[in-house]
């Protein structure tokens, strides 16, 4: 399947801004987590089920918490994830493949003992930071009680 050229200025902007790392929502989340005193690795490489490689947007390797910031367009958010009308077949297939990959990555990481937090780029930043902080605190508590029963 050939990648169509962006058919509108909006589509072009969306395609250009879809860099895999360092999207604006990721940068904002990392700054907020850091301000909350949380320390993490960004763009953290892991192998998932079947030996495939993937990268975790924001990872807490010790607590085994994996955070993904999903863009509304590319991950087909129910509120804003409207596929473009031109090249509709291409986009439907592309976005469905993205959704499938998201589910595979989440379930594989879960099987490997990671707690997965998926945030939409449209979610209020404070809410996301709260969810991440709770997940990390829960995991860290479990790790220290396992170490010191
Ligand atoms: Zn959205």
Structure, explained:
The chain has 149 residues and is an alpha+beta fold. The protein is built from 4 helices and 4 strands, in the order H-H-E-E-E-H-E-H. The protein has helices at 9-17, 24-35, 88-111, 125-147, and strands spanning 41-47, 53-60, 65-70, 115-120. The protein has a 4-stranded mixed β-sheet, with helices on both faces. The model has no long low-confidence stretch (mean pLDDT 87). The structure holds zinc ion. The site of zinc ion has 6 residues, from loops.
Sum this structure up briefly.
The protein is α+β, with helices and mostly antiparallel strands and 149 residues long.
Secondary structure elements and pairings:
Elements: H1 9-17, H2 24-35, E1 41-47, E2 53-60, E3 65-70, H3 88-111, E4 115-120, H4 125-147
Helix pairs in contact: 2-4
The structure holds zinc ion.
Zinc ion binds next to loops.
Task: Identify the notable features of this structure and list them briefly.
binds zinc ion, alpha+beta, four-stranded mixed beta sheet, 149 residues, 4 strands
């Amino acid at each position: 399947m050939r990648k169509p050229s962006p058919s509108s200025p909006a589509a072009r902007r969306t395609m250009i801004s879809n860099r895999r790392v360092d999207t604006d929502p990721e940068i904002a989340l990392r700054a907020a987590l850091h301000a909350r005193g949380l320390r993490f690795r960004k763009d953290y490489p892991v192998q998932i089920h079947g030996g495939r490689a993937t990268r975790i947007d924001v990872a807490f390797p010790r607590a085994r918490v994996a955070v993904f910031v999903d863009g509304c367009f590319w991950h087909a958010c129910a509120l804003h994830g409207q596929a473009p009308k031109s090249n509709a077949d291409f986009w439907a297939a592309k976005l469905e493949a993205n959704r499938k990959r998201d589910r595979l990555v989440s379930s594989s990481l879960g099987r490997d003992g990671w707690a997965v937090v998926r945030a939409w780029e449209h979610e209020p930043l404070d809410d996301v930071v709260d969810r991440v902080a709770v997940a990390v605190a829960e995991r860290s508590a479990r790790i220290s009680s396992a170490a010191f029963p």
